[in-house]
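Task 17 of the worksheet. Students: predict the tertiary structure of the chain below and write it out as structure tokens. Keep your answer in the requested format; marks are given for formatting as well as content.
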Amino acid sequence: MRTDNRKQNPKNQYRINEQIRVREVRIVDENGATVMPTKQALDIAHQKGVDLVEISPNAQPPVCRIIDYSKFLYQQKKKAKEMKQKQVKVEVKEIRFGPQTDEHDYNFKLKHAKEFLEEGNKVRAYVFFRGRSILFKEQGEVLLLRFANDLEELGKVEQMPKLEGKKMFLFIAPKKAGQAKKSQQKMDRERREAEASNNAAMEDIAEGDGLAASAKGIEALAKLRETATEG
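Model answer:
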């Protein structure tokens, strides 16, 4: 059955049958492409009981298919759905810390961050400083750098810890598939070095007045920054 043009051809949809008013068209099918007069293409479509559907109006001449219009729309809808399913939707997941987050809470949030990165999402980790805890911002920076180091196998730092108001942010993006990974031996060595630096920095900050780290603490932070941005 021929398709009712006006009912089946909504606004901004494909032109079909007599709506195609150019002199000639290029017909594509499983056998290739053939240029022919539009009237001839219409006659073929009518004989087969289907439609002449314009699929590429800007081509010279316009490209058409001889197919049932309803079937054609179904195929296009199916293709669009499949393409949408294949697209990876990247979301930004938030992880919140306090400046004195305990080890259990840290590991819990680290586990979730790994899951987010494995799913292809970005992670925005931040330390929220409540009241006078802003005096210990170095401690928050150490925490975020340790977090970046623990996620280095799965993510790459997009933005180093940055203080904005009462929050210090760290942005980590998932590594692309196929990106070269470090050897296990190298990762273990760097992790041990980072942990040693982290412990030294934490002890130094705890012994200080909270306003600034000592020279040893600052050196540890520098090492952590270097470790977090490698890879």
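Marker's comment: The first strand starts at residue 24 and ends at 29. The helical segments are 5-8, 38-48, 69-86, 103-118, 137-150, 184-207, 215-229.
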